[in-house]
User: Which sequence fits this backbone?
């Protein structure tokens, strides 16, 4: 049986928002079958990258980033905030749902992460997949991953910490103390490990690391890879996405300190799949109707627009009808993957309405 063929491209170091715009272009070109299944390598200048549904001010130290010229970028995927720079190697796979014969995103995530871990192991480190989306060495993260389906095309992304100044990461991000306490850490720097720390003077060059990852993908996923060319259409479309949306400050600040608005009630709930923060405005003579709901957090939802659709469905709903409305929404909606549950959204909204701190 012929193995699935993947093109390999390397877009080098690009400004953060331009990198994400290229992701959007690559997805669209693959959907239109104008490019084949693809493995892409990419790198960033100093950049804070927040998830599609995260609160910018809550995740990013603006003053530090502005002073030290650290870019701020909003991803088109969910998940948590990360810091990237030239010392990290990004990788991603963009391919059709049918290519690997695995339909469910959690199963694909496991197989892709195991393949990436296999590749890193070829460099002499004991890399292991840690559910739900990390690759670790000795309990410390060396690669974070995440992805989503857009129609029949999946984008699944990860990074390899080759060399990094962990203090810059800690300064650029606002890492919740609760998250550190959960892992019994004093700082985010203790949570991560780099290839340089593990291998010292034996640290290989970037090309060797890429080759190891590609070998891991070939062996672990049963694919063939071959270096190819970036198309002019991909570049043109990436420029359009950058100019029209992803490169704009308004897109990055789409969710930014929503609790600062007057009359906004804030609540939070943390479950196994991440944290959901709810920001609620009430209306009506008895303040018993949802005027607006904004849902934020580090969770994964596929496709990301599901969250915006849920917010729209909840607009104008009586407080007593929230449970029924959320249940009906998820019964009616085709959700590719949800790391959190409908109950997590429900609990977050209720904690806001009831003035509770939540359990996060």
Assistant:
């Amino acid at each position: 049986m012929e193995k699935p063929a993947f093109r390999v491209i390397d877009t080098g170091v690009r400004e953060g928002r331009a990198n994400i715009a290229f992701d959007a272009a690559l997805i669209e070109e693959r959907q239109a079958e104008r490019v084949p299944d693809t493995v892409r390598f990419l790198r960033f200048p100093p950049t804070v990258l927040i998830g599609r549904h995260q609160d910018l001010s809550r995740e990013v130290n603006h003053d530090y980033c502005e002073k030290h010229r650290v870019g701020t970028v909003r991803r088109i995927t969910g998940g948590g905030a990360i810091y990237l720079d030239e010392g990290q190697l990004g990788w991603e796979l963009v391919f059709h749902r049918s290519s690997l014969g695995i339909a469910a995103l959690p199963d694909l995530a496991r197989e892709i992460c195991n393949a990436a871990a296999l590749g890193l192991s070829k460099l002499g480190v004991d890399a292991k997949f840690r559910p739900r989306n990390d690759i670790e060495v000795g309990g410390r993260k060396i690669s974070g991953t995440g992805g989503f389906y857009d129609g029949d095309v999946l984008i699944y992304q990860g990074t390899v910490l080759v060399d990094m100044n962990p203090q810059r990461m800690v300064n650029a991000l606002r890492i919740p103390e609760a998250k550190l306490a959960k892992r019994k850490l004093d700082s985010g720097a203790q949570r991560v490990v780099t290839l340089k720390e593990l291998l010292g003077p034996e640290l290989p060059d970037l090309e060797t690391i890429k080759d190891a990852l590609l070998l891991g993908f070939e062996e672990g996923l049963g694919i063939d890879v071959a270096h190819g060319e970036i198309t002019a259409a991909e570049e043109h479309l990436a420029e359009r996405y950058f100019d029209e949306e992803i490169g704009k400050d308004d897109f990055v600040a789409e969710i930014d300190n929503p609790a600062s608005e007057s009359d906004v009630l804030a609540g939070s709930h943390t479950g196994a799949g991440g944290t959901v923060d709810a920001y609620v405005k009430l209306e009506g003579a008895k303040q018993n109707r949802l005027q607006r709901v904004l849902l934020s957090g580090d969770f994964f939802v596929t496709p990301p627009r599901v969250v915006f659709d849920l917010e729209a469905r909840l607009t104008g709903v009586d407080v007593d009808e929230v449970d029924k409305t959320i249940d009906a929404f998820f019964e009616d909606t085709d959700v590719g993957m949800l790391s959190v549950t409908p109950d997590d959204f429900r609990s977050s909204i209720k904690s806001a309405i009831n003035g509770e701190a939540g359990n996060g």
Confidence is low (pLDDT under 50) at residues 179-187. The chain is about 35% helix and 25% strand.
